[in-house]
Specification:
It contains 17 helices and no strands. It is mainly α. The protein is globular.
C-alpha cells in the first residue's frame, strides 16, 4: 500500500478528525459556563452512551467489513447487521433503565437515574448514524464521513459557542439537549449521504450462524478493549466523586483527537487486511500495517515530547482556572499515545480470523488495569496525577502482547516501528531531485 496513492482519503480522514478538534474547543467553552458537577454528570451520560455503541459496533457492525468482500452479499449482510444492531442496543438500554437505581447507589450519584432516563432518545438517534458510519467506512467514503461529522459536531459546537458568548450557564440537561439536536442532524445527513449503499435483502449465501460466530469471538476482545477508554470515569466516580469526573474529562477531551485518529486508521486498514490475508499476500499486509503503525508512532512520540516540554501548558489560556489541573493529567495520557499505534495490530490479528487471540490479550491487560486502578484508588487516593496511569499500563500491556504475536506471524520487525523515518527522507529526497 503506497500512502501517496491514498492521499485524498487520508486528507479527508484528517479533516474528519479536525471536527473532533472543533468539538474539543467547544467542550472547553462549556467548561467556562458550567461547573465540575454538571459537566461530570454529562460526562457519565456521554461515556455510557459511547461505551454501549462501541460494543454494538464491535458485536453487530464489524460484520459489515468482514463479510462484504463479495458485492452480491452486501445487501444481506447489511440487513443482518442492522437488525442485530437495533436489537442489541435496545436490550442494553433497557437493562440500564432496569438497573439505574442500584447503579446510582453504587456510584453515590442520585442524578445517574436522570442520565439513564435520557439515554433512550439519544440511542434512537444514534442507531442509524452508527450503522451509516460503518457503511461509509466500508466503502472508504471519507469525504462523506467528514460531512456527517461536520454537521454532527458543527451544530453542537455552534450552539455551545452561542451559549458561551451569551454567558448562559449550562446544566447537564442543557448539554444533553444540545447533544440530542446534533445527533438528530448528524443522523439525517448520514442517511442521505449513504443512501446509495443502503441496500437490504434476505437473499444471499452468507450464513447468519457464521456472522454470529465471528461476532461472538470478535466481541469478547472488543468489549474489553474500550472499557479503559470509556469506563475509567466510572472508577473515578466511585473513588473520587463527580467533581473529579468533571476535572478529568477535559484531559480526555483534549486527548480525543489522538484516540479518534487511531480509530480511523483502524477502520481504514481492516478491510484491506482482510483482502490481503485472503490472498495470502503477507508482503502487502506487512507493508500496510508497518507504515500505518510507524507513521502514527513517530508522530505521537514527537507530540508527547512537546507536551512534556511545556507546550501543553498553553492550554491554560483556554481552560478556566478551575480546570487547569487537567493539563498534567493530559500529559500522562499522552504517554499512552506512543503505545496506541502498536495496538492497531489487533485489527490485523482479528482480520486474520483470530479474534480470540485479541480477546486473550485484552482480558490479561484488563485484569492488570483493574488491579492498578484499585491500588491507586485505595492506597494513593490523594495523588490525582496517578489517575491516568492505569490507562497507560493497559495500552502498554496490549502493545507488548500484540507486537510479539505480529512479530511471529506477520514478520513485523522492531526496526519497522520506525520505517517511516527513512521512507519519509527518501520521499523528500526524490521530490527535490
Amino acid at each position: 500500500m503506497q500512502l501517496t496513492k491514498h492521499l485524498n482519503k487520508i486528507s479527508w480522514s484528517v479533516a474528519d478528525k479536525l471536527t473532533y478538534v472543533l468539538y474539543g474547543f467547544a467542550t472547553i467553552a462549556i467548561l467556562a459556563i458550567t461547573n465540575e458537577i454538571e459537566y461530570g454528570i454529562f460526562t457519565l451520560f456521554n461515556y455510557l452512551h459511547n461505551f454501549i455503541f462501541n460494543i454494538s459496533d464491535s458485536f453487530t457492525l464489524q460484520s459489515l467489513l468482514q463479510f462484504s468482500a463479495v458485492e452480491e452479499e452486501k445487501p444481506r449482510v447489511n440487513l443482518i447487521a442492522l437488525i442485530n444492531h437495533t436489537i442489541f442496543i435496545t436490550i442494553i438500554v433497557l437493562l440500564v433503565l432496569i438497573f439505574k437505581s442500584p447503579i446510582s447507589v453504587l456510584l453515590s450519584e442520585p442524578k445517574i437515574i436522570n442520565v439513564a432516563n435520557a439515554l433512550p432518545l439519544l440511542a434512537l438517534f444514534s442507531i442509524p448514524r452508527y450503522f451509516c458510519y460503518r457503511i461509509m467506512y466500508r466503502e472508504l467514503k471519507t469525504f462523506r464521513l467528514f460531512m456527517t461529522n461536520l454537521v454532527y459536531f458543527g451544530s453542537m459546537s455552534f450552539l455551545i459557542f452561542y451559549c458561551y458568548f451569551q454567558n448562559f450557564f449550562l446544566t447537564y440537561s442543557d448539554i444533553i439537549n444540545i447533544t440530542y439536536l446534533g445527533s438528530a442532524l448528524g443522523t439525517i445527513v448520514a442517511i442521505l449521504l449513504s443512501l446509495k449503499y443502503l441496500k437490504f435483502s434476505f437473499k444471499g449465501k452468507t450464513k447468519y450462524s457464521d456472522i454470529m460466530k465471528f461476532s461472538a469471538k470478535y466481541t469478547v476482545g472488543s468489549i474489553i478493549l474500550p472499557i479503559p477508554r470509556y469506563c475509567d470515569i466510572f472508577f473515578i466516580q466511585y473513588f473520587w466523586g463527580t467533581s473529579f469526573v468533571g476535572l478529568y474529562s477535559p484531559a480526555k477531551t483534549l486527548f480525543r483527537f489522538i484516540d479518534e485518529l487511531i480509530n480511523t486508521v483502524y477502520s481504514l486498514i481492516y478491510s484491506p487486511s482482510v483482502k490481503y490475508i485472503a490472498k495470502n499476500d503477507i508482503k502487502s499486509l506487512n507493508s500496510i500495517i508497518t507504515k500505518s503503525v510507524s507513521l502514527l508512532l513517530v508522530t505521537f512520540s514527537f507530540i508527547t515530547l512537546l507536551s512534556f516540554l511545556g507546550v501543553s501548558d498553553y492550554f491554560s489560556v483556554f481552560l478556566p482556572n478551575k480546570f487547569v489541573q487537567a493539563i498534567p493529567l493530559f500529559n500522562i495520557l499522552m504517554l499512552s499515545s506512543i503505545l496506541l499505534p502498536i495496538t492497531l495490530l489487533t485489527s490485523t490479528i482479528s482480520a486474520s480470523g483470530k479474534p480470540e487471540i485479541v480477546a486473550k490479550y485484552s482480558l490479561f491487560a484488563f485484569l492488570i488495569w483493574i488491579i492498578s486502578f484499585m491500588v491507586i484508588g485505595f492506597f494513593f487516593n490523594s495523588h490525582i496525577i496517578l489517575i491516568p496511569i492505569p490507562f497507560v499500563i493497559f495500552q502498554a500491556t496490549i502493545a507488548f502482547c500484540v507486537f510479539r504475536y505480529a512479530n511471529k506471524h506477520f514478520n513485523f520487525q522492531f526496526k519497522q516501528l520506525f520505517r517511516i523515518i527513512p521512507d519519509g527522507l527518501m520521499f523528500i529526497k526524490n521530490k527535490f531531485k
